[in-house]
């Protein structure tokens, strides 16, 4: 009977050999792969064990144990012997914080990196080797290989929007579990908007919407993410997208909005008053708590889509301030407004991120909406304007994160006629192939893209009501963006990516992740 099973297994392997091999699930594709010769590594619970050379690798070791248990039904033990058959090593002399080296040979697996994060990414790559080579994995074997890998960009983010539709903590953790598999290292939480204020501020408890995160819940979430090498960056949007706070504190708005009823979730296009000293006093207290809660170096302050003319342009106090400052354009009031806000962050030793706004929302453009201080990291997002934003930031020396709407807005439909079926304002279609075509450097010379920090896929929440819709809109397009953020252009190939996609879709479904099946790519 055992012989018969072996024969069947061998036949299955031969049948699937054309489509399944040990490289067929690698997303993002590593930047250096050497397929070695020789006999495979055999996982044997009596001989195989895992050694770590630093206590910070304990979680990575546990993760690898889980992988062997799930993929090979093998309980691999930990060892204190440096000569153990599997070695996870921090190697400080390696260059690049996320640089890892994975070497598999007959009698040893070694994964080393400059940091615990790098070693963890090596384990994610090893996991994908097992997913891609089903036949060897079933036989508890890993073929010889050497992978020497480091990312193209250090900042690889996804952004979710609990402000518009709340996402419970356990669902956010579930989301983190999937994104780390593809080497994303930042999760931005859009916490405040016209539709809700989702973070507890102890000094102003009335701010919090019915569904919100307590500070204790956020501490737990931050710790959970950090263990998985994900940095959580909070976004507290100002001066627009602020109806949630104006509903609680209407006196923070402009004189032109004092008689407007503020309904959270319905009222839009109101702003904080640029000339009101209480605005800065309140946000001093808010941002103090946010800065103390989140260990990230960064706090995102929004700065986008502000209805300047209908708020500051019609506010008697803002107009008086404009005259006092000698300004000729109302948008120049952004200068003192953000001078105040950024000053608050500077005192807390935090760095600001803002959405990049230019002097027009459509081409042609000639400059920024206002002169951004050099300390600001900008995010390019508006469709058609990213080339201009890239050029301006290259000239001004601002760090830049690439999230162009035409490639990276994952709340957009994935195919004509596909979801979302509500709150769809005529969204353009962003297909999987379109996402994969994204080159964050836009083909400019290396010297003109040195300031690009990385990429971000955004999932605005107007039409994303729960975790199942969130992951459906994320995957598989986030796999394409992951490769844009990690893999050098010369190693990227759409045809190869399509083949490497299939084992990952299967894995995600087995994990209970709601995904969109990209049937259209098989018809090309």
TrEMBL record:
<dbReference type="InterPro" id="IPR025705">
    <property type="entry name" value="Beta_hexosaminidase_sua/sub"/>
</dbReference>
<dbReference type="Pfam" id="PF00728">
    <property type="entry name" value="Glyco_hydro_20"/>
</dbReference>
<comment type="similarity">
    <text>Belongs to the glycosyl hydrolase 20 family.</text>
</comment>
<feature type="signal peptide">
    <location>
        <begin position="1"/>
        <end position="19"/>
    </location>
</feature>
<dbReference type="InterPro" id="IPR029018">
    <property type="entry name" value="Hex-like_dom2"/>
</dbReference>
<feature type="domain" description="Glycoside hydrolase family 20 catalytic">
    <location>
        <begin position="153"/>
        <end position="488"/>
    </location>
</feature>
<feature type="domain" description="Beta-hexosaminidase bacterial type N-terminal">
    <location>
        <begin position="25"/>
        <end position="149"/>
    </location>
</feature>
<keyword id="KW-0326">Glycosidase</keyword>
<dbReference type="Pfam" id="PF02838">
    <property type="entry name" value="Glyco_hydro_20b"/>
</dbReference>
<dbReference type="InterPro" id="IPR017853">
    <property type="entry name" value="GH"/>
</dbReference>
<keyword id="KW-0378">Hydrolase</keyword>
<protein>
    <recommendedName>
        <fullName>beta-N-acetylhexosaminidase</fullName>
        <ecNumber>3.2.1.52</ecNumber>
    </recommendedName>
</protein>
<dbReference type="InterPro" id="IPR015882">
    <property type="entry name" value="HEX_bac_N"/>
</dbReference>
<keyword id="KW-0732">Signal</keyword>
<dbReference type="InterPro" id="IPR015883">
    <property type="entry name" value="Glyco_hydro_20_cat"/>
</dbReference>
